[in-house]
Amino acid sequence: MPLLIIISIFFSFLIKPAMAVTATPSADQTKDIVDIIQQKVKEKLNLINTPSNQPKSFFGAIIKIDQNQILISYQNKNQIINVDENTAYVDLKRNKSKFANLKIGQEILAMGYLNDDQSLNTKRIVVTELKAVDNPNQIIVGQIVDISKSSPIFVLIPSKNKDNQYQIKTDSKTEIIDIKNNKLDSKVLTSGKKIIVIISPDTKIAKTFYASKIISLETSTPKQ
Predict the structure, then answer these.
(1) Which of 43, 89, 152, 184 could form a disulfide with 176 if both were Cys (CB 3.0 to 4.6 A apart)?
(2) Cα–Cα dist 192/170, whole Å
């Protein structure tokens, strides 16, 4: 019998379950963890509640006015404009104005910051005429591939769309410069030349554009 007791005690030591050891964090460690979580939550809320930090502007004609909101339309696209007590207003004569002076049909430029719903938190509204701000000019980067021998016209193929081409006209008013802003002679416009050109439709010649400014992408000898 004593032998059985000894054996049972021996096996009880062998099969004794392992006990998990839990480290209790100190008060300082707990505070650090709480502070980190609170900071992460705060950062997330700021991302949700803060509008885009990139300024935006919209042109359009006013088609609806509510107490704190304006709806404008431009080229068949509508845009919601939010206003508040901090929004500044400028009339057509560039005088300080106010929200109450805005009218349906007026054309405005609204500047501010986009919300997540794409409405604009507006900081400034300027009454204007869209015909005065519409810009027909285009900026094209490309390479000259052909030059007319009988007229001041050359053909440009844009770098981003080599299947397209522009027939471009120059005259004595066309400004030609290099990348260092040195003035150049029109003789630098040769086939193969890479340029940046500011163009607008030529009203006198179909499918032709007038170049108001040409920038050679190569450094050249300045015009004397």
Answers:
(1) 184
(2) 17
For residues 99-108, average pLDDT: 94
Q: What is the pLDDT of residues 79-100, one digit of tens each?
A: 999 999 999 999 988 899 999 9
Three-state SS at 14: helix
How many CB atoms neighbour CB 62 within 10 A? 20
Written as one string, the DSSP assignment of 86-107 is T-EEE-TTS-B--GGG--TT-E
Query: Any idea which of 73-77, 85-89, 102-106, 145-149 has the lowest mean pLDDT?
Result: 73-77
Per CATH, the number for 55-133 is: 2.40.50.140
Q: Does this chain's domain 55-133 share its CATH topology with 138-216?
A: yes
Distance CA 189, CA 110 (A): 41
Domain ranges across the chain: 55-133, 138-216
pLDDT score recorded for residue 218: 76
Residues 63 and 69: their CA atoms lie apart, in Å, by 11
Q: How far apart are CA 64 and CA 156, in angstroms?
A: 45
- Indicate the SS3 state at residue 212: strand
Structure tokens at 110: 């609204």
pTM for this entry: 0.43
Angle formed at CA 186 by CA 182 and CA 190, multiple of 5 degrees: 105
